[in-house]
Amino acid sequence: MKIAFKTLGCRLNQYETDALASRFHQGSYELVDFNEQADIYIVNTCTVTNQSDQKSRQTINQARNKNKDAIVVVTGCMANNYKKSLLETNAIDFVVDNERKSQIYSILENHFRGTAADPEGFDKDVFSYEAAYKTFHTRSMIKIQDGCDNFCTFCIIPKVRGRAVSRPAEEIYTNIRQVIDHGFKEVVLTGVNIGRYLDGTTNFERLVENILHLEGDFRLRISSIEPDGFSDRFFDLFEHPKLTPHLHLCLQSGSESVLLRMRRMYTAAQFAAMVNKLKSRFPDFNITTDMIVGFPGETEEEFEQSVQMAQELEFSHIHTFKYSIRTGTRAERMPDQISEKVKNQRSAILRNISTANKKEYYSTMIGKPQRMLIERITSDGTARGYGENYIPLRLKGKNLQKNQFVNVLLTGLHEGKEPEVITIPATAVK
Taking the model in full, what pTM does it have? Predict the structure, then answer.
């Protein structure tokens, strides 16, 4: 049978979709594009904002409209947040929460055999995914942690993902060895709050250090992470050639008073100190971030503090969110909710800063080497991929292949945006 997947939201969802897709492929199902007609559609949803909910619902409806006889499975955070209403929807056959997402293959196999297929009858286990070998990405996501204990006032992640749990370290090392054997050359550590990883005496810093000592020609990338006040030992790890010089550190606001109302676990001053320390040690280090505009009570002065920080710290990309009310959170009950008009205005300002910062950062990298991992070859023969600094690169040449490391030199910006590169000898790349 033909099966199609659609993933919305975070890299953790991407990891779980990749693992599921591999399992179904191993079970003799044919993977097809979500836009094609399939016998089964699996929608891995997101519910972090109202916009995420809307996209998830649209995707579910698209799946049903493509084949009215198909099996439609809805999983992910929306399945946890709106399970009752989703179960009442005629367009959906199965609603599978995050805790049982890894069991979807078994659930559907039971369904087609005519045996018990109620998801509630299957065991909960957020880590029982097999190593993905057939994925929708060149890089391999590795789930090391799930859930969160922070309870930020705007966030429902603890509700839909549960409390923080860490995957046993030995399972992580085994998973990474397996995907390297499958041919993957970039490994991305992902989870909800990966900086809080702890398995016995192995914390996040020790975990990363141990992974860097695994054999194989691969590089390691750290996914979105909270600025939890890492020690100098953590910064030392970026001296290792396998660890990519890029972090997506979640700021959310440059205002100390807004961060306090958000109940974030750091101050703006601490965040800035971390970024400045990284950039002083590694001048080309790439920092990207998330920022929320229009949080309840956010004044013009508080927003201006975010603007100033975005400019001073020179994030090469700012993933800008308009604050979205999430039912059941403390922020929902806060006074002085900001109008959509003001949110849109502030969002546009941060996005413009992000665009300017990105162009400036890319420009400073011209004339410098990168080790490019080719992720795809376009119809005109142009190779596209990323350098170790998480810079999107484009390269034209002969005998280029997907999932291949190529040493390149940045030569300019294509149409003022994406860097163009030429190949260089391996000896020129440190």
Answer: 0.90
